[in-house]
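A further point concerns the way the authors explain their paired sequence and structure data. Each protein is reduced to its one-letter sequence and a matching series of backbone shape codes. An entry of this sort, consisting of the sequence and the corresponding backbone structure tokens, reads as follows:
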Amino acid sequence: MSKDFYKTLGVDKSASQDEIKKAYRVAANKYHPDKNPDNKEAEAKFKEASEAYETLSDPQKRKMYDQFGSNGPQSQAGYGGGQGFGGFDFSGFQDAGGFADIFESFFGHGQGGARRQSTEQRGEDLELRLNIPFEESIFGAEKSIKIRRVVRCDKCEGSGAEPGTKIVECPECKGAGQIKERRQTILGQVVTQRTCSTCKGAGRNPEKPCAKCNGNKRHSKEETIKIKIPTGIQSGTVIRLQDHGNQGTKPNLDGDLYLRVNVEPSKKYTRSNQDIISEFEIHSLQAVLGDEVEVETMHGKEKLTIPPGTQHGKVLKIKGKGVP
């Protein structure tokens, strides 16, 4: 029976490689056996996600999967290289950003040694509500806004160590990043392993923590940034500013800033899609006999011809004077 790999990872068929990789990271982190000991269901889902990623992350295999399904030639043993972990072929994923960096987050560096957790931290995304006047939503604007976000420490340059000092092996775990504990039970000796609380799994610590960030590599800071409001933006629109969220411990780990736009109502105008609507009053004689009047628009004053016999509530149009 053919498997739906896109459904397994929760992505669309048009998903990019970055979206597929991100979805796999989420699934692998959620169902990894180390986080779900003795959970057969989680183990099965982890294998399904790995199988899906192994196919969809390879352009050639993905193309054949889209054409033939999961039972196509790409599923045969030996297709594209030798067999790797769990019966899956990892030989095609040695490039940066492949399986190597994903599994490194679980198994750490080194072959067969103690695991270390990566201490590189991605910056959190931020979301702000941005109120703008009706006029700015029509014509666009350039604004300066203040935000408070977490930035990399400029004193230690994100290392966490006081300048001039070293990063040294953690004395608690001896560089392993993990603490093994043995205890005797009625069933024999049981060995458990936990992340070292001193180095938080890194295996290394600053010899002397940075005085400015206290070894945390980042600190809070208020900043002013300039943004452009696009012409014709509507209320509820979300503007994404890449890398303007909290900064990570490395430049390529910065979060994003999302601005949710709220357009304030106008006393003179309302909007209907790309049209701008305003109301004005005329004398009854003007309605009966017709006239030419001057009306205010968002583009300035314009002349409007009122046809004879115009009824109350009649909608008249001035072409080209709505949303640009």
In short: The two ends are 53 Å apart (CA to CA). The chain has a mean pLDDT of 81. The longest strand covers residues 141-152. Residues 40-56 form the longest helix (17 residues).
